[in-house]
Amino acid sequence: MSSSATQVASARGRTFEIASQIAIVVAASFFVALCARIYIPLPRTPVPLTVQNLGVLLVGLALGSRRGFAALALYLAEGASGLPVFSPHGLGGIAQILGPTGGYLVAYPFVAALTGYIFERGKATFARAAFASLAGEVLLFTVGISWLYVLTHSLARALSFGLYWFIVAEVIKIMLAAGAVRSWRSFFPHN
């Protein structure tokens, strides 16, 4: 009788753990959607300046490579299905994924995975978080600018639309993400 009770308790524990992980991934996708709502349309570029990239970096750093990827893949699925999770600056749904910001959007799961992968492979320091975030941003802008190049057929226009306007803001986002990690690590040292 005792072993049967232990098995039931163990099964309940696993079920609770799975449900907790799913809730974390869903909450992270909604967090990025909330960040997408904070944006500034920029002149002469179809790509707005959003807080969304910061959200992606934070999700990757906080959840790690696998859960970060899952959260941002879920985010893309939510947006593709028509839920209003993308920046209101665009058309929404599949049209937004195929539009000028599509490269950035499609890169998000991979950016979160790369950022999380680098960060979880060593000591949780500001420098490691900043390096992981920088690597994620390089991947993000490589894919985003590549997509803009496909749409414009001009590397100069792709860089003008998708890079130059954003450099200073992205450096600030990298520092904010790394600083946030340092702060929450001091409150939760065993996580």
Structure notes:
The chain is an all-alpha fold and 191 residues long. 75% of the residues lie in helices and 2% in strands. It contains 7 helices and 2 strands. It has helices spanning 2-36, 52-80, 93-98, 102-119, 126-152, 155-162, 167-187, and strands at residues 39-40, 49-50. The chain has a two-stranded antiparallel sheet. Strand 1 (39-40) and strand 2 form a beta hairpin. Helix 1 (2-36) crosses helix 2. It starts with a helix and ends with a helix. The model has no long low-confidence stretch (mean pLDDT 90).
Topology:
Elements (H helix, E strand, L loop, with lengths): L1 H35 L2 E2 L8 E2 L1 H29 L12 H6 L3 H18 L6 H27 L2 H8 L4 H21 L4
Helix pairs in contact: 1-2, 2-4, 2-7, 4-5, 5-6, 5-7
Summarize the structure.
75% of the residues lie in helices and 2% in strands.
Arithmetic mean of pLDDT: 90
Number of DSSP E strands:
2
The largest sheet, given as strand count, sense and whether it forms a barrel, is: 2 strands, antiparallel
Return Rg in Å: 18 Å
**Termini gap:** 35 Å
Q: Helix tally?
A: 7
Strand line-up of the largest beta sheet:
1-2
- Principal-axis shape equals globular
Describe the structure using short key phrases:
two-stranded antiparallel sheet, 75% helix, single chain, 2% strand, mainly alpha, 191 residues, 7 helices
